[in-house]
Amino acid sequence: MLKLAVFDFDSTLMDGETIDFFAEELGIGDEVAYITEEAMSGRLDFFESLQKRVKLLEGLDYSVVEKISQNLPYMPGAKQTIAELKNRGVKVVCFSGGFRSATGYAKDILGYDADFSNVLHQKDGKLTGLVGGDMMFSHSKGDMLQRLQNILGVTQEETIVCGDGANDLSMFAHAGTRVAFCARDILKKEANIIVEQKDLTQILEKI
Question: What is the pTM of this model?
Answer without folding.
Answer: 0.95
